[in-house]
Amino acid sequence: MIISLIAAIGKNNVIGIDGDLPWHLPDDMKFFSRTTKGHHVLMGRKNFESIPKKYRPLPGRPNIVVTRNPSFEAPEVDVFTSIKDGIALARDRGEEELFIIGGGEIYKQTIDLADRLYITHVEARIDGHAYFPDFDPSEWNKEVLQDHPKDDVHNFPFRICLYTK
Questions:
Q1: 20 to 30 Å CA-CA from 158: which of 1, 21, 92, 120?
Q2: pTM for the whole thing?
Q3: Could you tell me if 39 and 96 are in contact, meaning their C-beta atoms sit under 8 angstroms apart?
Q4: How far apart, in whole angstroms, are the C-alpha atoms of residue 148 and residue 99?
Q5: How far is 146 from 28, CA to CA, in rounded Å?
Q6: Angle, CA of 113, 58 and 125, to the nearest 5°
Q7: Architecture field, domain 2-164
Q8: 3-state secondary structure of 29
Q9: 136: exposed, middle or buried (C-beta count within 10 Å: 0-12, 13-18, 19+)?
C-alpha cells in the first residue's frame, strides 16, 4: 500500500491557524477532493473537528481518525488511538493508496512512512499554529502537476507538486 501525505503549505510551512486553513484556494480543494476520493483518509481528531459539519465525515472516502482520547466517537468514522492501527485498517481493507490529511502532529509522525507527498506550495508567508514538517526535496523526485496564479477567487498563487521516492 502506498502511503501519501497531502497538504497545502505556506513558504514557512504553515498549514493552519486557529483550526482553519489560512487561505482560500478552491481549485486546490477540488484537487484534494479528486485525488483522495475513493481512498481511505487518515487524520487527527482536531483536523477532523475542523472540517465543517456538513462535510464530516469527508464524503466518498472511508475516514480514519486518530486521537489520544479512547472514548472519542464519530458516526461513520473508524477511530483509533494509534496511527499504526489506522494504517493497518486501510491495509487490511485492501487500500492501494492511503492519504494522510493532517494535521501537523499527524504529518510529523508519518512523514518518514510516506511514499508520496502531494504538496500545494502556497506563495505566502502567513502566521499560523500548525506546521508541515521539514523535508528535504532533494531526497524526492518532484513533478509539478499544476501552476495556479492569484486571481479573483484564489487569494494567493500556488503550485501543486507530487514528490515520490
A1: 1
A2: 0.96
A3: yes
A4: 23
A5: 10
A6: 65
A7: 3-Layer(aba) Sandwich (3.40)
A8: helix
A9: exposed
Q: What is the mean pLDDT of residues 102-116?
A: 97
Q: Distance (Å, rounded) from C-alpha 75 to C-alpha 88? A: 20
3 vs 97: CA distance, rounded Å: 6
For every residue of 52-93, DSSP letters joined together read -GGGPSPTTS-EEEE-S-TT---TTEEEES-HHHHHHHHHHT
> What cell does 134 get?
521539514
For 4-40, write each residue's pLDDT tens digit.
999 999 999 999 998 889 999 999 999 999 999 999 9
Average pLDDT of the segment spanning 100-126: 97
In the block, cell 489506522 appears at 86
Summarize pLDDT for 36-85 with one digit per residue, the tens: 999 999 999 999 999 999 999 999 999 999 999 999 999 999 999 999 99
- Phi and psi at residue 90, in whole multiples of 5°? -60, -45
Residue type, 27: D
Mean pLDDT computed over 141-165: 96
Decide the pairing of beta strands 141-148 and 130-131.
unpaired
